[in-house]
UniProtKB/TrEMBL annotation:
InterPro entries: Ald_DH/histidinol_DH (IPR016161), Ald_DH_C (IPR016163), Ald_DH_CS_GLU (IPR029510), Ald_DH_N (IPR016162), Aldehyde_DH_dom (IPR015590), ALDH7A1-like (IPR044638)
EC top class named in words: oxidoreductase
Database matches in CDD domains: ALDH_F7_AASADH (cd07130)
Keywords attached to this entry: NAD, Oxidoreductase
PROSITE patterns linked: ALDEHYDE_DEHYDR_GLU (PS00687)
Boundaries of every Aldehyde dehydrogenase domain copy: 23-489
Example GO molecular function: aldehyde dehydrogenase (NAD+) activity
Active site: E261
Record note on quaternary structure: Homotetramer.
EC number: 1.2.1.3
Pfam families xrefs: Aldedh
Protein name: aldehyde dehydrogenase (NAD(+))
Amino acid sequence: MKDFLQALRLEATNAGTSTGAQWLSSTGSQLNSYSPVDASLIGQVTATDKEGYEAVVAKAQEAFVEWRQWPAPRRGEVVRQIGEALRQHKDALGKLVSYEMGKSLQEGLGEVQEMIDICDFAVGLSRQLYGLSMHSERPGHRMYEQWHPLGVVGIISAFNFPVAVWSWNSMLAWVCGDTCIWKASEKAPLCSVACQLIVQDVFAKNGVPEGVSCIVNGGREVGEWMSNDHRLPLISATGSTRMGKEVGKAVAGRMGRSLLELGGNNAIIISKDADLDMSLIGCVFGAVGTAGQRCTSTRRLIIHQSVYDTFSKKLANAYAQLSIGDPLDSNNHVGPLIDTDAVKNYLNAIEACKQQGGKFLVEGGVLQGTGYESGCYVKPCIAEVTPDMPIVQTETFAPILYIMKYDTLDEAIAMQNNVPQGLSSAIMTLNLREAEQFLSAAGSDCGIANVNIGTSGAEIGGAFGGEKETGGGRESGSDAWKNYMRRQTNTINYTNKLPLAQGIQFNLG
């Protein structure tokens, strides 16, 4: 067994259902976690059955009644200790993330650091859950608003960020006074078990009621239970647009709230006034980081025609230097795709691009031979396209980069915006006027718009999310905490009279 699995107390077979202190037995099927790194069976997780799901929800509801009454700073102190525990387990958890889903070790460690960062953010937030006060039109009245915990929050996360996105939701929800039920991706279930083991130790030391942190595991059926469950007032779901539409429909049908972080088809505009050497770093990492399996991965480069040839050559030279292999080897830039189904999608997209007239500046393909036995390693590739090709409108979770030319900035912005998704975007330019136009209301239509940095690698301090088919959700920083609370407007009359608003007269007797 890998040393980091032992450090995280993972076993060959793990229960996949937990109410915190308890791990529940289940009649569910076994989820086998195979590493895309070497095709090894890392471990098994027992999927949650309906009886276990009902027990989890009941315990989360029960815990909410007590947890919501803990002072927010006290809840924040618990989250602070979780951050400390994550610091202690950073190396082991980062390796698990890298090994179970295939991202480079640097990115795996970075994902755990993101968890630590959101803990720090949440601790400060626990003393800043501010409401507003406002002046009443009625004399002797005071008006204000306050925020109360929402209830049991359901979190459905994706394989590509198997721990960080859960932490974005759970740490904020916990300081807000909510309890959480987490369904991890069935492609990376061991990460959820490892995180629960870390959290339950901290909770036990602090007397946190059982049910504040719950996990369930399984396939689509478990996600459907959560989406249709009126006892979960908020469902935060990360994944494909197709999945998000189903979740959103189900939650809306019961008048619940959904926080959706869905697909991205992100573009970087390379201006004639760009620093091309600096731009290269952001473009290459954005396109090949996590093997192109980030929702913020760079899918499109819109390059000014005057620098197109020069920058294309720089890209091709950079791609030739990429090292592809075992992500636990820090010398490698690119690891595997998550599974062979992802490889098939990658190959289908390449073939579709060719049929539509795309020409490959850097050819793709599946790597074979020693070190590539899992069949999940592919070559990052670059295709020269035109923006009207249907393939450019779609998101393929793989390292395929489409490049195209533009003449005017208005044209480039229109090309960038002319896709169904609206998550992340960037422009590389040293021209202040171009930068400001890109960030204006007439510029990028994405939830994230950057200047002189790439599309991926968002910091936790800003609200994360996008528009259009990206779902409209916002997680992590800024005032995203409001998603996990309910707003209440309060008016207090401290006189012996009862004037009505809007000057209405209602006299009795």
